[in-house]
Write the structure tokens for this entry.
Amino acid sequence: DASVINSAPFAEPVDPDKLTNYELGAKGAVYDGRLVFDSAVYFIDWQDTQQRVYVDAAAPGAPPSGVITAVPVNGEDVSGWGADLGLSVAVTDNLEIGFNVSWNDLTFDNPVYVGDLVVFDEGDRLDESPETTAGANISYQVGLAEGVNLLLSANAQYTSETLSSNALTGDYSEGDSIFATDLAAALALGESLTTTLFVNNATDEGGIVRPFFGQPNVSSRMRPRTI
């Protein structure tokens, strides 16, 4: 049965959820360890899934208070397929590159209600759950002099857009797909001193990571470019 709550002060305690994961995968190294791989295909069966929804904190039958609070509820069962793949390649003794990607179609098997509102319909994704993530990294190390080494690195990460449910209206707020890049240069002097220059979020990605009631000004975003 779908969970029904009237408001936060009278929300019923949630039941424990249970997750069963069926997975088939392989990992290993080839070409004298220069190529390392990690892969998996899986099916998730998630029962009594706990989700966080936002409701008005007013007592049942009272006028809306305007105070919004997050309440955990038990949703219906969630299931879906997924796949992960990661590769790391030592191109030379100094240069290494890596790549990873993850995808899943984890969705609700039945509608989830809060009061009379359907906050998750059959086939909806879970709150703040990206369908796809992917990343790439590259690092290069070179010796400049006796006991002096320079390490250059860069990595990029992609996360597909996520949704956030609104139990007050029954609709959704949609976030943005996010692409962020970090850069770093490290100079190691012997074994006791390392100086690092880093640039996090080098492209100054400002998209909405976690939407909140369709209000961009209070939605969660990435930290701006930091040097």
Summary: Confidence is low (pLDDT under 50) at residues 1-8.
